[in-house]
Amino acid sequence: MTANTLAGGTFTLAGGLTVGRMGYGAMQLAGPGVFGPPADRDAAVAVLREAVELGVNHIDTADFYGPHVTNQIIREALHPYDGIVVVTKVGAVRDDQGAWVHQRSPEQLRAQVHDNLRNLGVDALDVVNLRVGGGDDGHSAVPGSIAEPFTALVEMQQEGLIKHLGISTVNAEQVAEAQSIAPVVCVQNAYNVAHREDDKLVESLAAQGIAYVPYFPLGGFSPLQSEVLNSVAARLGATPMAVALAWLLQRSPNILLIPGTSSVAHLRENVAAASLDLPADAIAELDAIA
Fold it and tell me: Which residues form a coiled coil (predicted)?
């Protein structure tokens, strides 16, 4: 597979890995509810390969997608990952009914790291995010120390199982605590044009050269709905989702996008958003949504 130059530019993580700012989130490759296998495995493989053909070299995943299924599909489609950075996360598992269950003891995290290694077919993971929070909505930071689980990942990094570390679903205090223990190359939180509680954190991380990776960039399980967003999109001759992604790319140079889809057509639309240049008046309107 040969990757094309991708619009949107690149960002070099603090650990030295350079990725395109438009990446791909693999969550939707599993079955309904991110549980079980997809209805069409060949289509899932095709989406991943098309992403790389379009120039994407940042794939976001987790072994609890499926569970195991998504990583196995990524391995089938992309192994040995030449030039591709695969970022995964640990801190949760799925029970028999598909519920998301927190598991963050050192022993549990070690088992999850080995699950990722095995299902991705690698000896070391490029980046591992410790997913911490959850809260009532499932994606809010929950205050408290993250020293024990983060230190467990640092120990596995020292053993050579993990190359770089990140954290997910955290607040600014937890970011600082993790940084006091070991370098953090990325922070992955829920954030989009309509939900911007992390504005100050985005700016703080940008000043430090640390990537901010918004999950749910298009609203997640509740897609973004906004008359302003629709109006701006209509005026620019673009889709609302393309405008939402373009806004994030222009919001800050350290923002890396990982929109997910199980459709090649939607994938192409998402990637095309990296070429959309929003004029100042459109950005001002979009900024006001939050």
Answer: none
Convert 4-15 into a string of H (helix), E (strand) and C (coil).
CCCCCCEEECCC
DSSP, residue by residue, 148-184: HHHHHHHHHHHTTSEEEEEEES--HHHHHHHHHHS--
Are the CB atoms for 48 and 40 separated by under 8 Å? no
- Residue 215 annotated as catalytic: no
Query: What pTM was computed for the model?
Result: 0.95
Residue where the block lists tokens 């829920």? 190
Helix (H, G, I), strand (E, B) or coil at 187: strand
Active-site option among 24, 65, 212, 215: 65
CA distance 112 to 137: 24
pLDDT digits over 28-54, tens only? 999 999 999 999 999 999 999 999 999
Q: How far apart are CA 99 and CA 215, in angstroms?
A: 19
Confirm if 288 and 193 have CB atoms less than 8 A apart: no
Query: What is the band of 5 on the pLDDT scale with cuts at 50, 70, 90?
Result: low
* φ, ψ at 163 (rounded to 5°): -90, -45
Q: Which residues of 206-243 are buried (b: 16+ CB within 10 A; e: fewer)?
A: beeebbbbbbbbbbbeeebebebbeebbeebebbbbbb
